[in-house]
Amino acid sequence: MMRLLTSELMKLRRSGVVWIAVLAPLFLVLQGVANFMRYRDSAFANSRRTEWEILYEQCIILYPSLLLPLVITILMALLARIEHGQNGWKQLLALPVTRAQVYVSKLIIACLLVFLNLSVLSAGTLLAGLAVGAEGAVPYGLLLGRGLLAFIAVLPVVAVQFVLSFRFSHAGVPLALGTGLAAPTIFAANSEHFWIYYPWTYPVMTYFGPSMEKFEQDTVMYGIAAALFALFLLLGFREFRKRDMM
């Protein structure tokens, strides 16, 4: 199993997938810092929120509702394309490995890429705040804790895109479906009751929910996220095990 994971990591080095996971959140941090500095002495001067809270909000404002699910869609599609192209499945499954090992190793790499993406955003915001001298105590729970919870919240999205990307050899199918599923997120998140039934809203609620009066189902949400993650992956594995990948 470790050799398989090592092989998967080596494939990533040649694919450029890691750069997408890293550069996308860094761009958001730079944009957020630019907005913060531009309005620091005007629009944000009389705010009741701390400078750390304002900076954090500027860095993540579009991230959980739109960019995060789109980045996950792209990451999963590119990860699957490594095997879909140039008879990758035929070569991989010819090795002395089981399909379960292949499936789990791909899943671990997929989750690591998403965790890296979330970690870069959290760490980047923290470093940016220190660099610009944001006033007040550093809210580590806000900057780092929300990132960890967001990883749990986004697991259903990861599972759906993971299964779709490895199910369809043409990358356009999971990309189109992922984009379509991400589009209603903002509208669903603004619904008082419907949002809990639409997993794409869970990252939004993780980042912004604690400040909303309607957010009273946080524990339930994370439990549902974990359950859906397991369910989608189980269904995906059953199909992966039976399908002719050659």
Automatic annotation (TrEMBL):
Chain segments annotated as transmembrane: 60-82, 103-131, 143-164, 176-200, 220-237
Keywords of this entry: Membrane, Transmembrane, Transmembrane helix
Keyword check for Membrane: yes
Pfam families with a match to the protein in the record: ABC2_membrane_4
Membrane is among the record's keywords: yes
Name of the protein: Multidrug ABC transporter permease
Organism: Aneurinibacillus danicus
Classification of source organism: Bacteria, Bacillati, Bacillota, Bacilli, Bacillales
